[in-house]
Each structure stands twice: as structure tokens, then as C-alpha cells.
Amino acid sequence: MAFELLRSGKHKTPLKPKPMEEMPHTQLGTDYKTWCDSHKGTHKWRNIRWPVLIFMNLLFVVSFVFDLAILEGSLSGSRLIGFYLMDPFNALQELAITSTTGYIVHLTMNFWIGLFTILIFWFLLGGRSYCSWMCPYHFLAELAEKLHNYLVKTKKIKEHAFHTGLRFVFWFGFIILALVTQQLVFENLNVVGIVSRAMIYGPGLLLFWVFGILLFEIVYSKRFWCRYVCPIGTTWSFVGKLSPLTIKFELDKCGYCRDCQIVCLVPHELWFVQRGKATQEVHYTGSDCTRCGLCIDTCAGNALSYTIKGWGTVL
Amino acid sequence: MAKKQIGRREFLISGGVAVGVLAATGVGVKYLDISHTGEQLRQDFLRPPGAINEVEFMYGCIKCGLCVQICPVQAIKLADIHEGLSYGTPYIDVREQPCDFSCDALQCVETCPTAVLNFEQFKEAGLKAIEKATEGKDLRTTDVNPFEVQKVAMKEAVLMGKASVNKNTCLAHQRKGFKGISRGTDFEGIYRAPDSKFAYATPLKDKEFDREICNLCVTECPIGETAIEFSPGRGSGKMRPRVLEGCTGCGVCVMVCPTDKPSIVVEPIKS
User: Least C-beta-crowded within 10 Å: which of A186, A193, A281, B207?
Assistant: First the structure.
């Protein structure tokens, strides 16, 4: 039973697509196009998520500026009311290096406490939910994405997509790089850390790197960093593999419009929304899903919702 | 969004490019590493107290900035890429704001989650000193305050660098005195002077000096007589500052030095 909950169901034979009389818009007696657009402009979850993201990042800034012991440090390592938290990819790189040099004896108890606390915390909240609810770069990239979408829509530029497996190449690559060079190489390129540090300790020249990546995302490939590079997101998706908090899809409410896939950062996680693809009446998104809630907002039939697996719908 | 299926071929191409980029990054980092060995630290920049050797420091430091946050005098800053240090690593620019030990317990070292600022040595030094001070004494009646003993022992165990005096510009070496505010009224640096009435650091610009022969570096030293002395030179007999074994390299002397370019500098310890 528990094992069944972990499987995506992609391996099974697809269910037959719903006939016209079972489609949600026919049951409501409306035109398909009107039905699809009925939730356009709804931003319920985004309007919760953005303030949370901004508030959390402001907590860092405020803690430093006014010397409060609320959330000190930066996103690569911090203390929440005295409790250590540690970025897991940094910790992984560090462990990789230490395993070959013996420095491991120096790692403090706070390091382990910080690592395990944050792993448990984000595991419960869905792993990659860190990206959409915490990461300041994600916020910038979301704004950049809007610009990118506009440029694509007006045919100024073309969309370029890559294979999502690229993230694993970068993930292993950066760990191997850390091992070979004996340095936390990724931290020098880490746009998340750079933005976080720039906000808290004041801007630096490395912000141009961040602007460069943002520009690349605007003019070439949508959400390039988040989708194909960021090893922090990949680490979180490993953590969220078995996470209970996820997004539930109910086939009977779906109208096959695929609006959710269009707004989604990781459309491959919503593979089951396409007509004739779903294999079960209920599907859950996988570990790459950032639990951002954009698909929930846009869904005309309320087929998508936050859920805690094995506990029924909570929200 | 008409997205075509991305197959294995595309993956192999982009994956190959990614591996290439990563390899280039690695070579770049290694090259910088080799070309910088021995001069990773600029002369006037120090690592915070308790920093382990630079090579291990580089991979241990996660650039979280907790040491920056906890320092009460804000001596520690994070390096930007143009400052000659690895990006995001902490440093102290002693001419602007040195570590004056006014936190009393080396808090930056204690807070470091990856122990690149290693607290063990200070813990040991503190415990040893307490043991020595209370040896053979009845703990119920003795007036030895173990916290004071520990505090002093811990700060004396710090070794960030070593100060050295530039004889050509030092006022004392030229038998000159100093009167007034050392670094001008705009200078922002703060410290807790040994004769200060306050428990916390106060601005240097608030203090007026009047010395027949300039000896600010000696009188303002937070470590005291084991670190620097004002003594007559062997040949000439003129009074001049002399750095001793106990110098921790905290850099307060560099900040208070009234000459345009500091006549006393701290050279970082390279291990």
C-alpha cells in the first residue's frame, strides 16, 4: 500500500479518455473555451506564496540590520532562533571533500544538527517547495519568465528547451568538481547564495553573474537555471522523493486543457493531465514539483489541490 | 506551447556541453588556486580568529556569514570577487575595523558551523588556564573568577597574524609625539581601549591623545604587555614600540596608528 503511493503510475496502461458528456464543461452546460478561461487571473496561492517568500528573505535582512537573533546567516547556512540550518548541497560537497581529506573530525555538532533539521523540515513540506517558497532567485526568475513569455508570444524570440536530465549531470558534476579541486566550486556560481548574500550583506560584483543568467533566461531558454542546472533544487527533489505533501490530480474534474502544464516550472511532472495519458483516477506530482500552486490557481475544474498523501485532501 | 519531444540525442549534446563547462570551471579554479598559493591573503586582510590553514579554509567555509552577523564591532566582512580573496569568505580589514576582543568569548569562532574557525584550541586554552589559576585553591573561598581567567586565556590563544613596526615612518622612531584625535573625526572604527570605562567598544574618534613620544599602539593594545612593549632601543636608547611573542595579530594597533599609512602592520599567519 505504502509502496503503491510512491509510484507515479506511469508504467500502467492509460485509462480511456473521457467521452464528451463526462467532460466538466458539458456537465456545467458551458462552452469549452469559456470554461477553460474561467480561472484566468486567479492568483490565490501565488498571492500567499510571494509574501511568504519575501517575508522569509526579509527576516534574514532584518536580523542582520537590526541585530535580531531571529534568522541569522544566509541561505547557505543560518540560525533560526539559535537553531542551525544548513544548505544540503553545500553540506554534501563538504562531506565529499572531507571524506578524502579527514577534515570531517572538525565538523561541528551544529553542522549535523543543521543538516538534519533542514532535511526533515523540507521533507515534510515537500522538498522542492524550498524553491518556490524560499528561494529568492526563484522569485526573480518568475518575473523574468513573464518577460520571456511575452517575448515568445509576440514572436520576438524562439523558445529553447533542454533535457531535464541535465540537472543530474550538473549535480554529479559539481560534487566531482568539489572533490577534484578541494573547493566549494558551486558556491561561487550559486545564484541563490549570491542573491541571498547580496540582500543581507550588501551587493557585490558577482551580482552581474546573476543578471547574466537572468538575461539568458529571458532571451533564450525559459527558467534555464531552475530547470536544468541548479543542484540545490536537485538535492531538494531527492529529499522530496518520499515527501507526504504534494499535489493531487483528480481525473474526473479535468478538462484536458493543459493550462497547468503551461504555467508549470516542471511540466513533465504533470504528464497525466494530457488527454489519454492518465492511468489512474488520482495522480500525485513527483519529486521535481516545487509545490508552487500555480497549476492549482489556473485549473478551471479544481482538479488539482494540495494534499498530504494518505491523509485525504487538507486544503 | 508546442514543445517537441527532447530525446536522447539532445540530452547527450547538452550533457556534453555541460560536462565541458564544468571541466573548464574546474580547470579555472585549479589554475587560480595554483597561481594564488602563498598570496591568497592580501597583506592587510586577515582571516577571523581561529581560522584553520587557508587550503582547508577554502573548502570548509560555506560563506554563510554567521561570523559577520555575530561580531559586535562588525570587524568581519565577506569578500567580493575583486578583493583578492575567494568570493564570500570572511576577512578582517584591520586598518578600518580590527577585532578588539570586546565580545569577550570569540563568538565568531563559536558560531562557525563548519569549524573552519576552530573553537577547540580556545576551549582547551581556556580550560587549561582555569585549571592553572585554581590549582591548589579552595574553590569555595578563592577570589579567582574562572570566567575572567578563561576570557583572557582564550583571547591570548588567538593567532591571526603578527604585527611589525615600520621604523621609517613610526613617530616614536623619529622621537615624535602625538596630540589629538588619531584618525580624524570622520573615522568610524570602534574598539574597547584597555582604560575604557565601558564594557563595549566606543569610537576611536571620541578619544583624545596627548603623548610626548607616540605610543598609541602600545597603550591601546587589548592584549597588553605580553604582546607589545614600549622600551628603549638597544643602540640609541630611544623609546620605541617592540612587538613581542604574545601578539595575536588582532590589528588594533594598526587602526590606532596616527600616520597616514600605518607604521605598524599585521602580516597574516600562513600555515
Answer: A281
Least confident of A163-172, B22-31, B244-253: B22-31
- What percent of chain A shows pLDDT beyond 90? 56
Residues paired with residue A74 on neighbouring β-strands, in sequence order = A77
CA distance A136 to chain B (A): 15
Handedness of CA B190, B193, B197, B198 (dihedral sign): positive
Q: Where are the domains of chain A?
A: 83-238
SS3 breakdown of chain A: % helix, strand, coil, rounded to 5? 60, 10, 35
Beta-carbon contacts of residue A108 (< 8 Å; ≥ 6 apart): B112, B113, B114, B115, B119
Q: How far is it, in rounded angstroms, from Cα B34 to Cα B28?
A: 10
Residue B83 clears pLDDT 90, i.e. is over it: no
Residue B49 in grid coordinates: 580568529
A76-108: per-residue pLDDT in tens? 999 999 899 999 999 999 998 888 877 776 788
**A-B contacts at Cβ under 8 angstroms:** 150
- Has residue B267 got a pLDDT over 80? yes
**Chain A positions in Cβ-Cβ contact with residue B115 (cut-off 8 Å):** 106-108, 111
Per-residue pLDDT tens for B85-119?
A: 678 889 999 999 999 998 888 999 999 998 889 99
Q: Sorting pLDDT into bands at 50, 70 and 90, what band is A237?
A: very high
Q: Rounded distance, CA A139 to CA A53, Å?
A: 8
Q: Distance of CA A263 to CAs A109, A276, A296, B259, Å?
A: 42, 21, 10, 63
**How high is the ipTM of this complex?**
0.84
Contact B204, B252 (CB under 8 A): no
Task: Please tell me which of the candidates A67, A84, A183 has its beta carbon nearest to residue B113.
Answer: A84
In this complex, is the C-beta atom of A206 within 8 Å of any C-beta atom belonging to chain B? yes
Residues B216, B11: Cα–Cα separation, whole Å: 66
Residue B7 has a pLDDT of 77
C-alpha neighbours within 13 Å on the C-beta side of residue A12: 15
CA of A121: how far to CAs of A59, A88, A134, A242, in Å? 18, 12, 13, 13
d(CA A264, CA A247): 12
- Subunit contact B22:A170, Cβ cutoff 8 A: yes
Q: What is the DSSP letter of A228?
A: I
Q: Does the beta carbon of A145 lie under 8 angstroms from any beta carbon of chain B? A: no
Distance CA B45, CA B63 (A): 17
